[in-house]
């Protein structure tokens, strides 16, 4: 089977990469006092661990209206989002069965992935951001991001939830026969994104956010700002710029507020224009912490 990876590079261009190497080709808790986090490269066997809904006809649109491409605790106050599944460890599957629960980084997950988890550098960046946010919000001093990463990241009852708007799929080489009225897997990112946007994916994400009411949604990738606003129900809501400048190079965040919920759109984690240094990651975490301590979350 072929792995179809939709990758966004630093200059905003989007590439479709196909190959038979497996899912590893992609890279990139309890409460606020306990820590959690993000995504990385999962072994191929982990990619097939989607929990299928019994008796459901496989259909891409139904698959997208499920927990596909999601990790952690959807009831958490802080959500984190990317558009495409770039980071190693992002949940992926070859089945179009709806996924009934997010992937949880519990003890069993960590045991299965113990050799891979230390390689997931993008997760470590997120752990640094969230540990700094926790330390800032609770005034606990210097954050221990390694402890955050190694013990609490994405726990099933954790304080963070991660999702991709366009979840990764492992597509068979030969198209399978689909029932009449169901959606085949698109061959391009443009068509796949349109199905997510106009079909059931954004509707599912928006309804989940409305039901779970996270206080803070942090999205990475400013080139996808329109999709982030649309998916989370912030269309037409004016935002304000916030500048992070812990060193020489400033980074711009766009912040939208709707009631008690805030949407923060940040640069990607990688690339020359990204949140790509320890200093910037800690600065972003401290800003998130200030929002939390101010009652935004």
Your description of this structure?
- This protein is an alpha/beta fold.
- It has one domain (2-296).
- The protein has nine helices and eleven strands.
- The protein has helices at 44-47, 60-64, 107-112, 121-138, 145-152, 189-198, 201-212, 225-231, 278-296; strands at residues 2-8, 14-19, 70-72, 78-84, 92-93, 160-166, 168-171, 216-220, 239-244, 251-258, 261-266.
- A seven-stranded mixed β-sheet has the order 3-6-4-8-11-10-9, sandwiched between helices. It has a four-stranded mixed β-sheet with strand order 2-1-7-5, with no helix packed on it.
- A hairpin with a 5-residue loop joins strand 1 (2-8) and strand 2.
- Helix 4 crosses helix 9.
- The protein is globular.
- Mean pLDDT is 76; it is low at 1-57 and 174-182.
Distance between the termini: 43 Å
Strand percentage lies at 15-25%
Question: What characteristic shape results from the CA principal axes?
Answer: globular
Low-pLDDT windows of residues: 1-57, 174-182
The main pleated sheet reads as: 7 strands, mixed
Total helices: the number is 9
**Rg from alpha-carbon coordinates:** 18 Å
Order of helices and strands: EEHHEEEHHHEEHHEHEEEH
Strand order of the largest sheet: 3-6-4-8-11-10-9
- How many separate domains make up the residues? 1
- Which secondary-structure class do the elements indicate? alpha/beta
Give the mean pLDDT: 76
